[in-house]
Design brief:
This protein is mainly α and about 300 residues long. Helix content is about 80%, strand content about 0%. The protein has a single domain, classed as Na+/H+ antiporter like fold (Up-down Bundle). The chain has 13 helices and no strands. α2 packs across α9, α3 crosses α6 and α3 packs across α12. The chain starts with a helix and ends with a helix.
Length: about 300
């Protein structure tokens, strides 16, 4: 029962956006642009500025990148066999390769593992954010109807400011550049507003989903990759990484999180299967209520 209490505020925030969209109606694309370009860079800056860098950063980066590209490779194979278009392939990558370890995973890890787990969860969240705003945006732009291809996709990645926010955070931390308390408070206010804003936008997008337009075959594949294959791959990765058992267990649990909310923003931004991606986000989030307790239990048997 305690597992579900941590999810109540998460689904409540989703619900605010859902009800707001149904009652008022919003243009979600400019809101998603605001979150990506004005809020997330400050979240990345404050996280790296206030966190000490250790060897665990390298291990967590290897895990995050290895997990995402393992799933991307599987999707390319499936898309080739089934003859999916480039747009559909990119949509499946957005829906399957990136997990919601921020506004869903981080509070869950805190509930399950306490302060020690929260430290790891925050670092993994930022690394995942950086991966999504580079690799995720690359595939979102690559599948865009504009047809700009790889060159356009790379240009779009370079324009996203969250990478620079993280780099400046690391630089300021390493050089021990002081930031006034008032100015830092302003940075934290903007950064902290990013997560609930993204969650509300996701709720708005979910309200626009039409069940009649569901593509069951690719949706089932994406859900299987995100909720079932991902933790299996993560377990394999933890077997070879020189890290403590707590971090290994957290990696497996986070790998089983539903589709990342940010991918819905990127799909909206570049019009890369936004209906499909948001649908995968909705269904994976609901199904995670069943799958996550199982993953938590199994991972505790292995590394607990």
């Amino acid at each position: 029962m305690e597992f579900f209490t941590i999810l109540i505020p998460i689904f409540f925030i989703f619900g605010i956006g859902f009800v707001g969209e149904k009652m008022i109606g919003f243009d979600t694309k400019p809101l998603s642009v605001m979150a990506i370009y004005l809020m997330l860079p400050f979240l990345a800056f404050q996280t790296f500025y206030s966190t000490d860098l250790t060897i665990d950063y390298a291990m967590m980066t290897l895990y995050t990148v290895g997990l995402a590209f393992s799933i991307i490779i599987v999707i390319y194979v499936i898309s080739y066999i089934r003859g999916y278009s480039l747009k559909k392939t990119c949509g499946m990558i957005l829906a399957s390769a990136f997990m919601n370890n921020g506004n869903y995973g981080t509070p869950l890890i805190f509930f399950a593992f306490g302060e020690a787990g929260l430290h790891y969860a925050v670092i993994l969240m930022v690394i995942q954010q950086l991966l999504m705003c580079t690799v995720g945006i690359y595939y979102a732009a690559k599948g865009s109807h504009d047809g700009g291809g790889i060159k356009m996709a790379v240009k779009e990645v370079v324009k996203v400011p969250i990478v620079y926010g993280a780099l400046f955070g690391i630089l300021f931390h390493l050089l021990e550049i002081p930031i006034g308390s008032s100015f830092m408070e302003a940075i934290e206010m903007v950064g902290n507003a990013a997560v609930p804003t993204i969650m509300i936008i996701l709720g708005m997008q979910l309200a626009k989903i039409s069940v009649k337009k569901l593509e069951f075959a690719p949706l089932s594949l994406s859900l299987g990759l995100r909720l079932f294959l991902s933790p299996v791959i993560a377990f394999g990765i933890t077997l070879i990484l020189p890290i403590d058992d707590l971090l290994k267990q957290i990696m497996i649990v986070l790998s089983a999180m539903p589709t990342a909310a940010n991918t819905t923003l990127y799909a909206l931004q570049y019009d890369t299967e936004p209906q499909f991606v948001s649908t995968a986000t909705l269904f994976s989030t609901v199904l995670s209520l069943v799958t996550l307790p199982v993953v938590l239990y199994v991972s505790s048997l292995i590394y607990g």
